[in-house]
Amino acid sequence: MIISKLITTLILLVFFSSQMSAQALEKSVEKKIDSLIQTEFGNKNEPGGVFMMSQHGKNLYRKAFGKANLELDVNMTPDQVFQIGSMTKQFTAVAILMLEQQGKLSVNDPVSKYIKDYPSGDKISIHHLLTRTSGIKDFTKMKSLSGIAQKEMKPIEMVDFFKNEPADFAPGEKFEYNNSGYVVLGYIIELISGDTYENFIKKNIFDKTGMSNSYYASDRKLIPKRAYGYHKKESGFVNKTMINFSIPFSSGSLMSTVDDMLKWQQALNQNILLNAKETQKAFQKYKLNSGEEFTYGYGWHLKDTNGIPDREHGGSIFGFKSMEVYIPGKDIYVIGLSNCDCHSPTEITRNIAKIVLNHSK
Question: Which residues are in the Beta-lactamase-related domain (predicted)?
Fold first, then answer.
């Protein structure tokens, strides 16, 4: 009886000791992350951001910093809605793969199959658009962009805006970051689905994954918990430059929260939207015509954190910056969203991932 009690006591001591150790470890990690973020987002009276870190789908860190609205003196909260910029491209890529899964297209199809008059469209494939190897001129680098920035543009008008520009290189010759290719993809989604890009993403992705606080961006709609975007000038902070969201379109016009982005990550992991075969296409490295491998899949950069493979992407649009890192081998997801393009979450998000990775060994 005494031996039995002693064993029970020892088991309880070991259990509580491990619990206390885990809590101490989490507290230690939290302090390190707090300190890291404070270096860039420490001023409570400036625009700020929201950072979240999760492992195995469980939130281990979720905090807001600074102001969501300077004029109204509104503090940032973790459920704030941000423009996510180029993170939009992952949704566009998955939408294309969903259409492929339904048998409505192939990533090997030439662009000319859907846009008959596209220059060299028989040589540029959907795969080239997805991997940024098409050579199409990036419209964000065109001087004439300022002339249409405030205009409501139909997708075909956006495609016509850049399609006759000289190509930067032959399809598949090199990898170069490009927004135009993802605008073409958005237009193809509309042509094949018979629906607008906005509706397609909402019905087929946001609604299916429970992303109830994610939207196609608008400066006119009332969006609950919207974080307002800012620039920093010598004279102080100013409201973000206005742009018509039909311009970035399917390359950068979505809004979301850190919680919804975690739902998105989990939906991809659980094959809720795509089967395993289609999902793998988004997360594998491809080769150029020369046989050289490059580190971009379909909508994600494929890099590494402390030598462990990751998937990551950032975003930048007037008044906002965003960054996410996902480490599949450890199921660690880190995301940072900022409402001033003067505060970048990129390196902070990467460093948070490194801290968590070191503590999860």
Answer: 34-342
Q: How far apart (Å, rounded) are the C-alpha atoms in residues 116 and 62?
A: 48
Whether 37 is in a domain gets the answer: no
Whole-number pLDDT of residue 360: 75
Q: Residue 116 falls within a domain, yes or no?
A: yes
pLDDT tens string 301-346: 999 999 999 999 999 999 999 999 999 999 999 999 999 999 999 9
Number of domains in the chain: 1
CB atoms inside a 10 Å sphere around CB 304: 11
* Residue 13 located in a structural domain: no
Contact (Cβ atoms closer than 8 angstroms) between residue 191 and residue 114:
yes
Residue 305 near residue 354, CB atoms below 8 Å = yes
Give the helix, strand, coil percentages of the chain, each rounded to 5: 40, 20, 40
Strand segments (E) across the chain: 49-55, 58-65, 67-69, 74-75, 82-83, 215-216, 230-233, 236-239, 254-256, 286-287, 293-294, 301-305, 308-317, 320-327, 332-338
Task: Report if residue 35 sits inside a domain.
Answer: no
Tokens 């969501």 locate to 68
For the stretch 236-252, pLDDT in tens is 999 999 999 999 999 99
* CATH number where 295 lies: 3.40.710.10
